[in-house]
Design a protein that fits this description.
Helices cover about 30% and strands about 25% of the residues. By secondary structure, it is of the alpha/beta class.
């Protein structure tokens, strides 16, 4: 294995904003201010790639670049599209961003990036065995790690539970929409997570997404055998995970 670079550029692409910063790969801390640009509408490959190129240009960055993307990413190609234009499906995202920036860009799913960030610097740091990160937001994202190594593209939010796609019952957006008190919503989350627990017998669950900052209002109501920790990197998880994934791949 080669040397892992000590800095890498991380980009986090979401439906409403595209954020980027340089990351210290030894500490997971941001080395520069986080810059956010509103996601262009329509969020087509050309328009999003132009924003990615702008972030790199503004930072005057030359080096390793990683980017998260709200899709299943298989060998650089988007196999789905969540909160971005449908024209991304079947697009080689690595290639589009690499051409736009003139530098190699490594792309991965957004929840997978958060999982890597938490495994390196957050709630799952130095935890051996099976770790599952679940992010509760508009839907439910997931990342599966075994001894710190990512098994990419799990879509555990789409498990069928009681005849429903799980995220349509237990995502954080459902709590908002149905105006559920945390305690009642936690019951649904508990039902969902115990199903995941039966399938994978994880050593640790990490729960992320915006609701993780209110973890004390709902995590105590979850009835599971597996230990549960709130995610620690919050808004920077995508940027840090993308930078780390790219740096680690560069160092191989």
């Amino acid at each position: 294995m080669g040397e892992r670079p000590d800095q890498a550029f991380g980009i986090d692409i979401g439906g409403s904003g595209i954020k980027g910063a340089v990351v210290h790969t030894t500490t997971g801390e941001l080395a520069t201010q986080r810059v956010r640009i509103v996601t262009p509408q329509p969020s087509t490959p050309d328009s999003v790639a132009a924003v990615v190129a702008q972030l790199i240009r503004q930072a005057e960055w030359h080096g390793v670049i990683g980017a998260t993307f709200p899709a299943v990413i298989q060998h650089g190609v988007a196999r789905s599209a969540a909160n971005v234009d449908r024209s991304w499906i079947g697009t080689d995202v690595d290639d589009v961003f690499t051409k736009a920036t003139g530098q190699k860009v490594i792309v991965l799913n957004d929840a997978d990036a958060a999982g890597i960030a938490e495994a390196r610097f957050g709630a799952a740091r130095d935890v051996p065995g099976v770790v599952i990160l679940l992010t509760f937001g508009t839907g439910i994202g997931s990342a599966l790690l075994v001894d710190g190594k990512l098994v990419p593209n799990t879509e555990l939010g789409h498990l069928e539970l009681d005849g429903h796609d799980a995220e349509t019952r237990a995502a954080a957006s459902v709590r908002d929409r149905e105006n559920l008190p945390y305690r009642r919503w936690a019951k649904r989350v508990s039902r969902y997570m115990s199903h995941v627990e039966k399938l994978f017998t994880p050593d640790l669950f990490v729960v992320g997404g915006g609701v993780s900052k209110d973890a004390d209002k709902w995590v105590p109501y979850l009835e599971l055998h597996t230990p549960i920790k709130p995610a620690q990197l919050l808004n920077n998880a995508g940027i840090v995970g993308a930078a780390m994934a790219a740096a680690e791949r560069d160092g191989e």
